[in-house]
Amino acid sequence: MSAPVTAEVAAIKNLKQIAREEFILPGTAVCGGCGGLEGLRLAAKVLGSKTVYINAAGCFTLLAVYPYSPFKGSWLYTTMGGAAAAAQGVRDALDVLMARGKLPVEDDVQVVVVAGDGSTYDMAMAANSGAIFRGLDFWYFCYDNESYGNTGVQMSSATPYGARTTTTPVGSAARAGTEHGKKDLFEIWRAHQPAYLATVSPRYPVDLTNKFLKAKGLRGPKLFIAHASCPTGWLFEPKRSAEVAKLAVQTGIFALKECVGGAVTHTHIPRRRKPVEEYLRGQGRYAHLFEPTRNDAALRLIQEQVDRYWEAAAKAGAASS
Amino acid sequence: MRVRFHGRGGQGMKTASRILGSAAFHAGLVVQDSPVYGAERRGAPVAAFTRIAKAAIRERGLIAAPDLIVVADETLLFEPTAMPLAGCSARTVVLINTATDAAALQERLAHLGRIESADFTSLVFSITHTLVGLSTALGVAAAALVGLSLEESLAGVAEELAHATLSRAAYEANERLAQEAYALADAWRAVPEPLDASLALAAEAAPTALLAAAPAGAPGTQLVELRFEPPARATPTICVANTPERSTGSWRQFRPLLQRDLCNACWTCFVLCPEGAIALDEHEFPLIDYEVCKGCLVCVHECPTHAFATEKEVR
Ligand SMILES: Cc1ncc(C[n+]2csc(CCOP(=O)(O)OP(=O)(O)O)c2C)c(N)n1
Ligand code: SF4
Ligand code: SF4
Ligand code: SF4
Ligand SMILES: [Mg+2]
User: Fold this and answer.
1) Which residues form the domain of B54?
2) Whole-model pTM?
């Protein structure tokens, strides 16, 4: 379906190989300590300035509030459900311009969808499925803050079990807050056989950079689910943003992985996983699991789910090697 | 009675306005409260409004001519995008959370009316050991100033805190804080009733008055020049990479300060600053751009050698 365009891209090994130039500049109106912005900023360091960002409505609407834009590349605003369709239109237009000699082919302009989880997991499911199915040559950066953040933190299908949102408040009937489990978008997208698929964390910048570098060599849908630690929606102090993102990986709640040609590889396996409580405790959205009384049943459920995930991953890894 | 609260996103002024509203509601009064914030986030200026009357309130929208103004953060006093004193008259009482005394402020602010001030931040910190609770302190102080009783004020706090998940200890600390804040504010003279106590007047000054008074040329007020583009282009070239002109440095409550001798130029803070507000100098030491640094303090928290000190911003 999609063919590699370059063979090898050298992976980086440490922080000091990350580009010094910024491609998304400061001064935006998003919250201080926004983990989603950190992820996108790092991604942009690989994507460069020859980019058209297609932004579905969400928190990142605030990045480019007229007449300001932080992007060195171009920016187009779309509906929550329509970003991938817009990406198709922009990609086609760029291709036509190149065919007519009006845009230098060597500019190699990239089309990048930036969308939240409410958009990606809920409203744009069908449009995204279509674009991936058609093998559209584009990037998709879903910053997953696990709620409809921009409108005041409502539950989305990416909100994890146990988290309190404004539409899943804690009550005597729903002691855990959100009672649904998080939708497994990675597996849904994997079934579409995209050229590249990965999860990234803002606190693992080398891993993130390498995944974007690797995808750069591939044509077709290049899809990223970025864990987006969100001080405002998850209720923790902004300075802890990177720490919270790190705890998500260390507890095994957020798995760093990629998928090329159908096979899933975990790019960072937390050997001695911290108890999930260490991640949950510091966030106000989970405070009701600890206060005024401990909800042991809910905590056990969350821990067991993580343990099961990694057991299955270990089995799959053993089977494939 | 019209009360306007000014703070920054995350400081709890929306909650303070609700605490005052709930307290007045418990006193059997008619109440209206609502917050307003722009397309900006935690750290950016926000305002909230509470109207209190004995009969149905017909007035709607922003409060342009308040009887009481509560300023949660003194750094907002001279912030052109906040203008907390807009619409003041000599009748307006201004309550400021600051360690500076009221007389000194009176001079700087050129406000003809009464100014009351106290260091609520330290009070909150001494009782709750965090800054969470400023909403309780200022909501209750406002309640005392408009003449509500301690019982009514505590009922307002209880009503609003029921929505938060607090431990028993945190809840009790908040109650203690409310009592102390009430005692502090109760010593001040009450805010005089407005001339139109029924708040029946629908026609208030245009709400834009809140922002209109910013002096031309003040930081954050410069206009962006747009080039002419032919109308046939669906999307004109808008300015690219120009957000640094917005100076989000004014959002900062704490300033990260590099102590160079402790820094080993590891790049961690540069890589992890979500804003991209840190550059590296020729020796690869971090250089923070204070014009745009929002003061999230991720850099301080993540630095492996603890090379940053933090300092409270005073403006
Ligand atoms: C069809 C539609 N419904 C509702 C809205 C209002 N709206 C704007 S942003 C937003 C939240 C988007 O959530 P998400 O995609 O997760 O992004 P986040 O705000 O969390 O960054 C909503 C509901 C909209 N723009 N379009
Ligand atoms: S609400 Fe969360 S995701 Fe949205 S801008 Fe703020 S920190 Fe970022
Ligand atoms: S993280 Fe600390 S040690 Fe590393 S460059 Fe920044 S200030 Fe220096
Ligand atoms: S406090 Fe540090 S991490 Fe946060 S914006 Fe400022 S320089 Fe960046
Ligand atoms: Mg979201």
Assistant:
1) 2-210
2) 0.86
